[in-house]
Amino acid sequence: ISRSLHFQKPGYKELYSRIGRKFFELEPTTAHDVHAICVANGITDPAMVNKVVMEASDYEFDLRRVKKTIHREKRNME
Predict the structure, then answer these.
(1) What are the pLDDT digits (tens) for 15-54?
(2) 1 in Cβ contact with 23 (< 8 Å)
(3) Which residues are CB-neighbours of 25 under 8 A, at least 6 positions away?
């Protein structure tokens, strides 16, 4: 973002102002984080948690994939 602002690329000035002129880097999501998300969403069965973690690991622990898998597992529980 900073580089594009420097070169005055179209749209980056507006994007930068909309995020409050601040941004920071986050730590990558880990299997421990996915496990905590599962528990927080009511999935406590170790087999189901492992299934969610394994699927998430295939996609570098992408949280969109975690959300999709958790919703699918919760539907299967019903």
Answers:
(1) 999 988 887 888 999 999 999 999 999 999 999 999 999 9
(2) yes
(3) none
What is the token pair recorded at 31? 């299997």
Residue 37, amino acid: I
The whole model's pTM is what?
A: 0.73
The secondary structure of residue 5, as a DSSP letter, is H
Q: What's the pLDDT at 25?
A: 85
Confirm if 11 and 38 have CB atoms less than 8 A apart: no
Spell 60-76 as b/e; 16+ CB within 10 A means b: ebeeebbeebbeebeee
Q: What is the 3-state secondary structure (H, E, C) of 25-74?
A: CCCCCCHHHHHHHHHHCCCCCHHHHHHHHHHHHHCCCCHHHHHHHHHHHH
Cα–Cα distance measured from residue 53 to residue 5, given in angstroms and rounded to the nearest whole number: 38
